[in-house]
Design a protein that fits this description.
The protein has 494 residues and is an alpha/beta fold. The chain has helices at residues 45-63, 90-98, 102-119, 135-147, 162-168, 179-184, 226-238, 252-267, 298-303, 315-323, 335-354, 369-381, 386-404, 412-429, 444-461, 465-477; strands at 10-13, 18-21, 29-34, 67-72, 151-154, 157-160, 201-206, 222-224, 242-248, 272-278, 281-283, 286-287, 331-333, 480-484, 489-493. It has a 4-stranded parallel β-sheet, sandwiched between helices. A 4-stranded antiparallel β-sheet has the order 5-6-7-8. The model is unreliable at 436-443 (pLDDT under 50).
Length: 494
């Protein structure tokens, strides 16, 4: 059964440039395609951010009651070094450098990719197809595009004719780029390429004799273009029209613009109703990228084996760090932000762990639990706004801490609601794993705080303001705020 909360879900659509109400094409089913990694190297944390974000989306849609078919591909052929369809195939180049078979490279880095995502407790996709396993489908797609008049053959390679396509369609509708402007900003072709125009992109590339990964086709031996694989595989497993197509912001142009053009050339359909893009992750203020040697691998974060880190951080901390920014926002990683995330996550989990030990009654709660639950879902329904959701969770943690020291009241019915909702949000939707946390459940927490207040009062009376300020500041660091008057101090948890 579909949850009542589902009717309020809005998703930012890169195609329309606004948050649109999410209504699936099929009433209770959702089709979602996410561009996966090119498996020629270890996935860095910037790559993982995309897949962690879409894992949240996958989880939330399942939580709402939808049956979701989540397709995430593996690129193991056709992704050339340069966007102008030049350079080596990335997998083949890595195979040459490591003296391995290309499929050894693919296997090595696919296993690493799966291992990392398992550590982040992501749910595997419904289908994970590879480009090399769908050569027949890609050849058929090319035949259809040629039949539509939007592709041409030259010396054994097939190129998408953007100029011809743009006469009756609109190339670049996702990124907002205009063909005319691109042409004006392009260099004149020097005769070293088979393309009619610089903007044209390869659907099929002729394989040189030294090229290891190649297949027979009606146009000779070759391999598929990078953009084509996603079009062919999404259509095979999700149909000509599906609900969500996702990926990193760097894929918006040209990859996703090319996907749309190919799909429209085949059957006249923009394949996805919603196009979603995660923003980049920076490292110490600079774009995280392998090409500029500014990146960090997840395992380096876990074990602390990186010059940018003072220690290792567990996957829950890293995931919490990622969720503290909206998936469409730029997020900067540093040692300090991870330390802050570690403290924040421990505080959040300690609050959750506290619930079971709280002594409750049947009197009215000093907290509107139903409204709080509604607020949490409204944040999730607002384009998966995890930073605001986390703020709501901390609001409740503050209340729970006050219940624990008898400053606030929670009744038994609301305690049960909080237990269920915290479980749903933390573990089912956000995908954290349960950790063992040492939480004071004996009631001595209040006694300890009061003892420290007495020590501070004595320090104030002795005019030892250095010690007095130190106790106040350290309590504040722990989320305990002191309120001083002339003769005494009280406290509240923040």
């Amino acid at each position: 059964m579909i949850s009542n909360y589902a009717k309020d879900l809005k998703i930012y659509n890169s195609l329309t440039g606004k948050k649109d109400k999410f209504t699936p094409i099929q009433q209770s089913k959702v089709g979602m395609y996410v561009c996966g990694p090119t498996v020629y190297s270890n996935a860095h944390l910037g790559n993982c951010r995309t897949f962690i974000s879409f894992d949240l989306i996958f989880r939330y849609l399942l939580h709402l009651g939808y049956k979701v078919r989540y397709v995430r591909n593996l690129t193991d052929v056709g992704h050339l070094e340069n966007e102008d369809d030049t350079g080596e195939d990335k997998v083949s180049k890595k195979a040459r450098l490591e003296n391995l078979e290309p499929m050894e490279v693919v296997q090595k880095y696919t296993l690493d990719f799966h291992d990392i995502l398992k550590k982040f407790n992501t749910i595997p996709p419904s289908i994970e197809p590879s480009a090399s396993g769908h050569i027949i489908e890609q050849i058929e797609s090319i035949k259809q595009i040629i039949s539509s008049g939007f592709a041409y053959e030259k010396n054994g390679s097939i190129y998408f004719d953007i100029i011809e396509f743009n006469k009756s369609n609109s190339y670049g509708k996702l990124s907002g780029r205009k063909v005319e402007e691109m042409m004006n900003n392009s260099r004149v072709l020097d005769g070293s390429t088979d393309k009619k125009n610089p903007q044209d992109f390869a659907l099929w590339k002729k394989a040189e004799k030294t090229h290891i990964m190649s297949w027979d086709s009606p146009w000779g031996k070759g391999f598929p273009g990078w953009h084509l694989e996603c079009t062919s595989m999404s259509k095979k497993y999700l149909g000509n029209s599906f609900d969500i197509h996702g990926g990193g912001i760097d894929l918006k142009f040209p990859h996703h613009d090319c996907e749309i053009a190919q799909s429209e050339a085949i059957d006249g359909n923009n394949p996805a109703k919603f196009w979603m893009h995660t923003n980049m992750l920076t490292l110490n203020g600079r774009k995280m990228s392998k090409s500029v040697d500014n990146f960090i691998l997840p395992n380096q974060i876990f074990n602390g084996d990186n010059q940018n880190l003072s220690k290792g951080f567990n996957p829950n901390t890293v995931k919490f760090f990622i969720y503290q920014a909206h998936y469409r926002s730029v997020l900067d990683l540093s040692n300090n932000t991870l330390i802050a995330s570690e403290k924040g996550f421990k505080k959040l989990i300690s609050g959750y762990d506290l619930i079971s030990s709280l002594k409750c009654n049947n009197e009215k709660s000093d907290f509107d639990v139903d409204q709080w639950i509604s607020n949490c879902y409204s944040k999730l329904n607002d384009d998966f706004n995890t930073p605001m959701l986390i703020a709501d969770l901390f609001e409740c943690v503050k209340f729970l801490n006050n219940v624990n020291i008898s400053l606030k009241n929670l009744n038994n019915n609301d305690k049960e609601k909080l237990t269920i909702t915290f479980n749903d949000i933390l573990f089912s939707i956000l995908g954290f794993t349960k950790e063992t946390n040492e939480v004071d459940k004996s009631g001595s927490q209040k006694e300890l705080i009061e003892l420290l207040i007495k020590l501070r009062s004595q320090a104030r009376n002795d005019k030892n303001f250095v010690l007095s300020d130190k106790i106040r500041d350290e309590l504040l660091e722990l989320g305990i705020q002191l309120n001083d008057d002339k003769n005494s101090s009280s406290f509240e948890l923040i």
